[in-house]
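Dear colleague,

Thank you for sharing your sequence with our group. We've completed the structure prediction you requested, and as agreed, I am returning the results in plain text so they can be pasted directly into your records. Please verify that the sequence below matches your submission; if there's any discrepancy, let me know and we will rerun it promptly.
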Amino acid sequence: MATPDDIDTPDELDDSVTDVTDPIPEVSAAEERDEERRWRTCVIGGIQRKIDLKVIEPYKKVLSHGGYYGPKRSAIIVFSACYLPDHGRKDYDYVMDNLFLYVLTTLDQLVAEDYVLVYLHGAIERNNMPTFGWLKRCYQMIDRRLRKNLKGLYLVHPTFWLKTLVVMTKPFISSKFARKLQFVNTLEELSELVPIDQMSIPDKVKQIEFELMIKEKKRKQKLHRSASDSSSQEIASDNVTDSNDSMRENQMYRKFQSDTMALSNGWF
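Please find the predicted structure tokens below.
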């Protein structure tokens, strides 16, 4: 049983609390600036939001400026899907939410008037593909000015998944916006639409382009061989036919000679 002498007095308690409390660490001016640089404030849909720039640092290359084209010097904005985060991240939703805000605000800064958006789908891994919900939210929250000034959305190296996704988006996108969508099979085909010399194209996408070129070359060679084989067969068939015709002509000629001789013998 505790006696009065065993109970700490208020002064003793204060001393003990003071002894165990850690001092509040001081933050330097440089650390404060670093903390400020980590966040970007933006207003989306009338609501002020903060973007965690540190967590999306590895994925900022997803959006880049690809130069200008045309007499109006319209901007070319490139979205490289291969730089999107992996679904395996525990904070995947948090990263994608911040990346979404970063893309919107960066687009707003890069685009002054008309522009085209080039979506490089090639080289994206299955685990990096954005979800349907994320893409839908992107469309719904894009500023009206950005939608109106968008003159074309080129989907490069489309896959069956991407084409299916476009079909799924038709119900909630406007027909006017849908007309701006265009599938582009290769970078060579893209270069016929907009200049690509200033675009920052990922090496992975270039590798996909190279593989497609090799595949197309092999396909053409196969078609050429098939056409050559078919032509050779036709020539061989024609030769056989000519040979058969020649044999029949010879047989007819010999029969004619035989009949003529027989007829002559009968006359004389």
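Summary note from our side: Residues 260-268 have pLDDT under 50 and may be disordered.

Kind regards,
the structure core
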